[in-house]
Amino acid sequence: MSVDIERTQGGRSTVRDMLFDAERRLNAVGIPSPAADAAWIVSHALGIPRNRLILQDDITDEQRVHVEQLLTQRLSRVPLQHLLGSTGFRRIDVEVGPGVFIPRPETELVAEAAIRELREQLVGSRIGVDLCAGSGAIAISLGLEVENSRIHAVEFSDDAINWTQRNVEAHEEVLTAAGSRVEVIHDDAEHVADSGRPLARLAGQVSVVVSNPPYIPDAMIPREIEVRDHEPKMALYGGEDGLNVVRGVLRTAAILLAPGGLLVIEHADVQGTDAGMRGVPGITKAYTADFEIASITGIPAGTPVFTEVADRIDLNGLPRFTIARRV
């Protein structure tokens, strides 16, 4: 029996052994951050915070099996966040899993721009809309970080909306304490403000519209295996040039935003100002009111809807999101 146990353990009898072995194996298959992933997996299996791993070196057979199960999945490139069941975003943790896009650190800057604008509004005007809300990370952050705000989280995917609702409900108590409310709306971001649809009532009243829409061209294959194999396709691909949903978001923002209201929209690092009309700043500057938009907003047909269009970089110095104001 002792020989079998030793063969199963492979010499991994302590937490330090498990960490070393996990990091070595993760590194061998090209995981970008093997040491961090190993620490997350082991701490999750042991049910302790990462910063307490150095205080514990004993590990039970049951915990060792749990580590191996998680490690095996990570080695096959299942996203770490799916294994942990959640991910951090700004000041919160949100639950994630199959069917919903995992929020990235870069998107925290997108949320920051929307939060700063919303804070500048009078209490009764702190109305925000998060289009393509996914996990709800942006919408919840707006509600928590801007007191007395009303946020509307719009998500179209039948799978993702369950995660949106779950995360909003999990943060309901702290949202209420902040005097804020997040309403989850199961609808198409491109048409949610049309006549008879859920947000038509807010036409011309919204201070901030923020969105992290799908923006990858249909023919492009993501470099990251985790993204290619595990992220929902609906959250990734945006048509032939990647900008189909972006154009729909511009239309919805044109209807919803109050005059001078702010649009914040994320894009790929190759869709910034230098991309011209194949980039988000380019199509935002060129977006003009059609007769329907004109009838709703009062913006003359054929004239630009957005002004003060500017692009912003992320912490890596790459183009990451576009901001613009409704005329």
UniProtKB/TrEMBL annotation:
Residues in Release factor glutamine methyltransferase N-terminal domain copies: 20-85
Catalysis performed (reactions): L-glutaminyl-[peptide chain release factor] + S-adenosyl-L-methionine = N(5)-methyl-L-glutaminyl-[peptide chain release factor] + S-adenosyl-L-homocysteine + H(+)
Family annotation (Pfam families): MTS (PF05175), PrmC_N (PF17827)
Catalytic class of the enzyme: transferase
GO molecular function annotation: nucleic acid binding; peptide chain release factor N(5)-glutamine methyltransferase activity
Keyword entries, A-Z: Methyltransferase, S-adenosyl-L-methionine, Transferase
EC number(s) recorded for this UniProt protein: 2.1.1.297
InterPro entries: DNA_methylase_N6_adenine_CS, HemK-like, N5-glutamine_MTase, PrmC_N, SAM-dependent_MTases_sf, Small_mtfrase_dom
Residues of the Methyltransferase small domain: 115-215
GO BP field: methylation
Protein's recorded name: peptide chain release factor N(5)-glutamine methyltransferase
